[in-house]
Amino acid sequence: MASRFAIAAACAALLLSACASRVDLPAKDQPLALRVQSSAIAPGNGGELVTAAALQPGDILLTSVATLNSFGIRLGTFSPVSHAVLYLGDGRIAEAVGSGVRARSLDEVIAEEQMVVAFRAPGLDSAHVDAMRTWALSQVGTRYNTVGVMLNAPFVLNRRACELPLIPSAVSNFCVTGMAIVQLGGSRGDQFFCSQFVLEAFNRAGLPITTADPRWVSPADLLHMREGDVPTIPATQPLRYVGHLKYNPPPVITADGATSR
């Protein structure tokens, strides 16, 4: 009875979360398994703290900051990250923010953000990096894709109907693609929000991370494209975890109402 209750509770949690799932069929020495999307990302939970010396040009930095806007994005995407940044090398990054595309120092990003975690796309070589850096810097000053962000927010919520547990991947992908075409058709491709900018840089370098339109992809989607996770939007190759450059654990509320870390 207890085991049935546990299974029922697990199924209910999956239905409520509506996160992407995948069934791994039995193989030699491996039983049937249900894998679900994971947002857990922290040192001590399969992660480690690293310094900037561990980075390579072309690495993707996913971040979060203690602002209302960041919290709203994380809440809406059920994710611990809210922003995506492209590392250019030599301590410089490029990113798309509300004021438009800009380049600045990595130290500024680390100082401002609560969490900075790095991922790497397999197969990136010097030619890719040069093309990516040249394109990214040429876009400095390009306007922010405000309409794209506004359209992406309801899309992230609505597409969860496509991610119900045990829906076959082909069906889920078809559902997400169809919904994106309908809901995101008015978004621009010549202006950028953060994750769109990062993905477009990889496309321009000839090493796409996903075949999906960059306008469909949020920072949370990039997080789930890492090795061992279950992406909503398929990746051409899983991203490799490099490490955390910064991590501040969320505050814990104690019984007397105080907060601690």
UniProtKB/TrEMBL annotation:
Residues 1-20 form the signal peptide. This is YaeF family permuted papain-like enzyme. It comes from Variovorax humicola. The keyword Nucleotidyltransferase does not apply. InterPro entries: Papain-like_cys_pep_sf (IPR038765). Keywords: Signal. NCBIfam families: PRK11479.1 (NF008552). It comes from the Bacteria.
